[in-house]
Automatic annotation (TrEMBL), chains A, B, C, D:
Predominant location category: cytoplasm
SUPFAM superfamilies for the chain: Glyceraldehyde-3-phosphate dehydrogenase-like, C-terminal domain, NAD(P)-binding Rossmann-fold domains
Entry protein name: N-acetyl-gamma-glutamyl-phosphate reductase
Gene Ontology biological process: L-arginine biosynthetic process
Subcellular localization, as worded in the UniProt entry: Cytoplasm
E.C. no: 1.2.1.38
Length: 349, 349, 349, 349
């Protein structure tokens, strides 16, 4: 095996950053050569993450573009919203390929970004330049690109569950309702009442109903594949678990369709894409069945009484919903097999 | 304070039974005078439930009607489906008032029961005789009745959230989608892979999509209050927590309605009914906020883009969804204040 | 029933404060007439605790002694360490009886307080004045007192498990090792990495080994009852649950003693004290068996091979370990039955 | 890379079996060529474990020795106690190398086995033949052996934490007290009240105090390394989490020793053994810091007041406590680097 390609991680002290480190440890062609944190530069990554003892013990680097370029060819941005929009242009200018895990470059319209994120948008030139890396849908665009905007966790689970049905005209695009549920790690490592153990344990809560910043991202893709504007009803819930997202999606059938029709459609649509698994009739996926892995599992129910389909889609929000899909995009971008370094079996139980 | 009325609990070794004991310990007018279990008669209730040591230490009685009648005036049936249908007629014949917590007498149609429960239905005479005790909706029927069928947990959360909107014609009855989530205690104390800790912890799963036996119960009431048949899309999910149910409900608005309209409607509808609490605009209930109590909390979101309302309703499945509502029905039936012995503050956190 | 006595709660926005509200709602002789918070005065308690909607909706009062005195006869201090030491003297001076739930008045030596709490100690006059309210051990001192220092959560579970054996000379006082475990609510409502859901869920951690501020409190009482200085080895662990403390305690037997001997000793020692329950041989308590209640359950194992006894003691840290015992002390202080308003059955499951 | 060696797994439908599959998927020199279950032969492994869809879809094989031999060179026995004792002799006779994960061959004395396991012991010839595979202690014996008895989960965490101190004479062997805590997956996949979610969630319980079948295994090794019989006090607790074991161990110091002395001793003792990580002074390991990995992390506290050391040792019970160490033994046995295929980074959070 030859020398591996160097990659850098900015935002190494967040959950997305450490998950990138966990996964990349197994990568055959890439290795992490710089872990970066603007706030903690100069300290050891193991100070905050003792689980990395003996695995990654180096000091955290700063965010300087030239320093990164001297160590790496690709940089992952695992920073909060509002940070990548400032860093990415510098890194691109320095000749680095950039894969951004934040929401800063997902929406093409600055106005839309500002409306939903309540922050200044990135420069429009870069919004246009960034390729939206929903790997199973836009993978062709990712190949050879040098700037990828990695999708959000809710959009990934939701879109992989809806796009084939929309594209095939199986469902009425005006009827889509998305009831999404997430584990707590999606909220990041920041301490707040909203991430306090005693507040969340043995509790289930709805939040940001129709107000989540992932709404426009979902609608952007659905509208794109439908060729017509689509709006959705979208509810998010916080579930007392660390990892996992489930989107339960409802839509009215345009014609008489059976579960078997959906299974056939989706199997064909995702043929050759190992990370999407379609469940047999009568079986719906559970989040633990993808825990720690890059899989997205999808199951269906059709109710002839109401003429609606129910689609259940699950991912691990930190893997397929963040770090895993980012590595999948790295693979696509570099021309490697998309599963390289991502063949983790879900950890069950 | 005079002598309390004696009540008996059949099915004392299940979660519904022990919850009745917990709650009734605080009742001002009733006291448990017989705890009954066909399978464990003669043993102490504390063998299986050491938390009752020093509180209830008597031996479990058998199911004989005359023996019960000698100790109690009212009997709660907290037995699995298929048992109450056999016991209730005897107890009624012996002059006992009966409050059944199982599903055996909820549906008026034997055929419907057999279709959804996959068991022989109860005698039609008794199906008709049983008053469906959804206390805030059918409380008037409960007063003075001697045979109550206590509603299911999912129907209670769901119906309290939908009935006012249906009755007022705020929503299109053909558009109702119910995404329901429950803690594990709803599955009872029976040991199975489906209640195994390692299978459920850090896991979220969908189950029985459109097949749950609570579907016809929900549709029975919705159709009744609408005056026209209603069918719904109903998904159930298992959440890694012990207690709590949340129903997230979606419907299309018939006219332009704001969250404020819904709040006003529901506050008026539930005026004087202490156990339903309506949340202010922008706030949605979480299951922990009713944990251990008889409350049902309801919140709303309206999306003008899609013209849909989202209604979130939560209960503690073992209290308002079972034992608590059963005691509320006892109160109504006896002419006591409906909150008697039920003024538990939610245990938070 | 006559008019209830008014009690005030300072620190109403913490977990100890809201637990006092939950429990006092059921008290036959006392009622909460003022909920107080220095930081949130003027806002509604339901802003931070929606579970209290319809139960307690009044605005939070300020900490002024005269204002409190105009509404209440007794004040509970449920404030962080370092606050009660400043407030208690004023309140006592205003003629209020004071029950302090913090650690500020537990240790009689200012030096010891400063060593373990790393804060300035309270005035020595008040340290001496405060009666240490470990109800089952020092209840006689509490009766008629007007200033109570309520014990810590770990000390309560630990001391109730050790005192009878020490007093009876069953165990070697030099051999005591305490392995204690707590749910997360003991850390309070403050948001930090140490209370972050994703950090604690599916995790078990040891912390503050031999450094916990409850060590001198435990040793103070053990030394007192032994009549000779005792030092202990004390480890604390954080368990992924919200409520519950278990102390597993190890000691060398001084003579040949069986489990039966311990059971007999403890039953006699705690005779008439309803909140301590001794388990039969072969059965050890679990924290859920006291959840939400004021019980302390204790079980034993004797190993003849090593000549050691293992004592397991459990409480709900927010009830017997805080608010419940504080109310028990209120009852003792006022001459009411010590169980008044505290007859909650553990919520199981 | 050449052809991989075939390995078979008997007991594939248990948690140990599926964990072997998860880990071996990443092995560079070995691959699973037969998954075996006596009870489910002929069905697909994905029937019970949908998380393996697309990864392992073959049918389960039967337990026949010759059939296994035709597919594999090494067989892992991940069967319940009492089964391996019957299967291992056949497999050895067929020329297979055997790594047994059950307790059947750990104790060398049949009488001891029968006393603690309450089952008939294996044939003494095989008890003697089996090499006890505590890899960091007895690794030299494993090399080239063809029959390995893999240690238990509690013994692994406990012994790795105690052996160096015993060997070096740092602690009094008569003083050892072990307070052990485990997640629920250690109880296997069998459904019972003891593994029921609602009974274990938000609960901490002590069980089998001084009676756990791992006691003689721990004492066997401690006695061996001390050169003198050692008895211990051993308590097990069930913690509301799926994976993870922590042993908190207490012992009296023989001489004046600091935490620094222990750290130095252990670092030297485990030099070159990557899976044992020693924590710096003032830091103690948490179970999540080894979750999903083969690490055992160890930390220390010394209390000069009581002259005792507290040693905290954590593992993932399904990895280092079962499947991971079994693969580590495979590596040693085959002469491969012991970390081959085991370089999983702990999944955090």
């Amino acid at each position: 095996m030859g020398k591996k390609m160097g990659v850098a991680i900015v935002g190494s002290t967040g959950y997305g950053g450490v998950e990138l480190m966990r996964l990349l440890e197994a990568h055959p062609y890439a290795e992490v050569t710089s872990v970066i944190s603007s706030s903690s530069a100069g300290t050891s990554i193991t100070d905050g993450y003792p689980h990395l003892a003996g695995i990654r013990e180096e000091l955290l680097d700063g965010v300087d573009a030239q320093a990164i370029k001297s160590k790496a060819d690709v940089v992952f941005l695992a920073t909060p919203a509002g940070v990548a929009s400032k860093l990415a242009p510098e890194y691109l200018a320095a000749g680095l390929k950039v894969i951004d895990l934040s929401g800063d470059f997902r929406l093409k319209s600055p106005a839309l970004y500002e409306q939903w994120y309540k922050k200044p948008a990135a420069d429009e030139v870069y919004l246009e330049k960034a390729v939206f890396g929903l790997a199973e849908i836009y993978g062709e665009n990712v190949k050879g690109a040098d700037f990828i905007s990695n999708p959000g966790c809710y959009p990934t689970a939701t879109l992989l569950g809806l796009v084939p049905a929309i594209k095939a005209g199986f469902i009425d695009p005006a009827s889509i309702i998305i009831d999404a549920k997430s584990g707590v790690s999606g909220a990041g490592r920041g301490a707040s009442l909203g991430t306090h153990y005693s507040e969340l344990n043995e509790n289930l809560k709805a939040y940001k109903i129709n107000q989540h910043q992932h709404v426009p991202e979902i609608e952007m893709v659905l509208s794109d594949v439908a060729g017509t504007p689509i709006v959705t009803t979208f509810t998010t819930h916080l579930v007392p678990m660390t990892r996992g997202i489930m989107s339960t999606m409802y839509a009215t059938l345009k014609d008489n369709r059976s579960v078997g029709d959906f299974i056939e459609l989706y199997k064909e649509f995702y043929e050759g894409r190992r990370f999407v698994r379609i469940r047999p009739e009568g079986q719906w996926p559970a989040t633990k069945e993808v825990w720690g892995s890059n899989y997205c599992d999808i199951g269906f129910a059709v109710d002839t009484r109401t003429n609606r389909v129910t689609i259940v889609s699950v991912i691990d929000n930190l893997v397929k919903g963040a770090a895993g899909q980012a590595i999948q995009n790295l693979n696509l971008l570099m021309g490697w097999d998309e599963t390289s370094g991502l063949q983790f079996v879900p950890a069950y139980p």
